[in-house]
Write a structure and sequence with these properties.
The chain is an alpha/beta fold. Helices cover 26% and strands 24% of the residues.
């Protein structure tokens, strides 16, 4: 059996790249984690590692080839280990604004869907398929049309249409006074945004990745979060800080951190982490209207996924309310952001083994809707928490503490946490997978609390 190695997508917007160099040739035996090629894009040159083991039976795309489309077979493995799946897409650290040149991807045409069944959506509402990326863009556009004080600022948000194309076409509609490209200095432009908010404007500050917001911690925590309290309610700071959070693919330890627990620890901030397009749109619109500083944690690996969005004039999702994504009676699983998808897949697997899992999408981490979680645990008597971040002092630890405090007598097993391994994120693809939560780890934890 043979398996094709495909041209990887090195960023969410990549459509093609150049195969700069091969490190292997036909007949070579390769191992998982071995560097096999160098790929060039408009943003970066990146080494690509093998995920599967096997013998290279054929090089399909020669070294030096340009404009190779993503997912094109570039080499073929045969023999030992070749039955495994192709190498996954990888994503490099975003490039500085001055180096970015690629054009925005074509937007997917929305398609009508059946009548909504979600209790949050009015009966009879039509649904359209929208990517998370475009749902966020639509939310900002609608709020900018509604309120002239709303504006967007950040690296690459204007001329380049956003590092991940979230701000696509906003510059064309609103102009460069309301869609503002900033210098590459999070420390500086975050401070400008906070000052503008204190003066009565409503900034949306985009971080190319939340890892870069480490440069702006003082402005976010010491200024934005604390000013209302320290001014005795006289100075408000209505501002939204948003951008991709958590692990992408092979961007290593300094670009893969999940800041959910970091910001949820701070009084004065509201922290939101949506999963699907409807929540991304509805919660971002609610965040822009909120008078408080908001931390809005998106996920790069969700940007290109399509979900149903209600086709209504003003779709708003309330901040501070969790959502029961799947009902069950045997175990409660809590998750947020990309982990919701893994929790739902785990629930499907568990159902096949006779375990009915209730999946709760936290959506808002501060304020945390612990009432919904507690009521679920009173029914299921078991709890598994899932988060992409580290476990110690994490979101799952807070959820478990609240359940123990408010529903201890209902627990039939100790709560279990599924989280990233307690190490910096590895760069190697195989090690990265091992360090992160997975469907298998969630299933194992759920079985453990159910004594299976």
């Amino acid at each position: 059996m043979s398996v094709d190695i495909l041209m990887p997508a090195l960023s969410p917007t990549m459509e093609e790249g150049n195969l700069a160099k091969w490190h292997i040739k036909a007949g070579d035996k390769i191992e998982s984690g071995q560097v096999i090629a160098e790929i060039e894009t408009d943003k970066a040159t990146m080494e690509v590692e093998a995920v599967d083991e096997g013998v290279v039976s054929e090089i399909l795309v020669p070294e030096g080839s340009e404009g190779v489309k993503v997912n094109t077979p570039i080499a073929r493995l045969g023999g030992e280990g070749a039955g495994a799946s192709p190498a996954p897409a990888a994503t490099p650290a975003p490039a500085p604004a001055a180096e970015a040149k690629s054009a925005p991807p074509a937007a997917a045409a929305p398609a009508a869907a059946p009548v909504a069944k979600d209790p949050e959506i009015p009966a009879g509402t039509n649904l359209v398929k929208v990517t998370v990326r475009d749902a966020l863009r639509d939310a900002m556009a609608e709020e900018m049309r509604r309120d002239e004080n709303v504006f967007l600022m950040g690296e690459e948000v204007a001329q380049y249409q956003g590092a991940y194309k979230v701000s696509r076409e906003l510059l064309q509609e609103f102009g460069d006074r309301r869609v503002i490209d900033t210098p590459i200095t999070e420390h500086g432009f975050t401070g400008l945004g906070v000052g503008a908010a204190m003066a009565g404007l409503k900034p949306i500050v985009e971080f190319m990745t939340w890892n870069f917001a480490m440069q702006a911690m003082d402005q976010i925590i010491n200024s934005a979060a604390k000013t209302l309290y320290m001014s005795g309610g006289q100075i408000r700071c209505s501002i939204v800080f948003r951008g991709p959070n958590g692990a992408a693919a092979r961007v290593a330890a300094q670009h893969s951190q999940d800041y959910s627990a970091w910001y949820a620890n701070v009084p004065g901030l509201k922290v939101i982490a949506p999963y699907d397009s409807a929540d991304a749109k509805g919660l971002l619109k609610a965040a822009i209207r909120d008078p408080n500083p908001i931390i809005f944690l998106e996920h790069e690996m969700l940007y290109g996924l399509e979900f149903d969005v209600p086709e209504v004039d003003d779709w708003i999702v309330p901040i501070g309310k969790a959502k029961v994504r799947r009902e069950g009676k045997d175990v409660t699983i809590t998750a947020h952001s990309r982990m919701v998808g893994l929790a739902l897949k785990a629930a499907e697997e568990l159902a096949g083994e006779g375990i009915q899992a209730e999946v709760i999408d936290l959506r808002t981490l501060r304020p945390l809707d612990h009432a919904t979680i507690v009521e679920s645990v009173k029914k299921t008597n078991r709890l598994v928490t899932v988060e992409e971040g580290w476990g110690p002092m994490g979101v799952g630890a807070e959820v478990a503490a609240r359940v123990v405090e408010h529903a201890f007598d209902y627990l039939d097993a100790p709560p279990l946490r599924v989280c990233q391994e307690d190490v910096p994120m590895p760069y190697a693809a195989n090690l990265e997978v091992l360090s992160l939560p997975s469907v298998e780890k969630i299933v194992k934890a759920a079985k453990a609390v159910c004594y299976r």
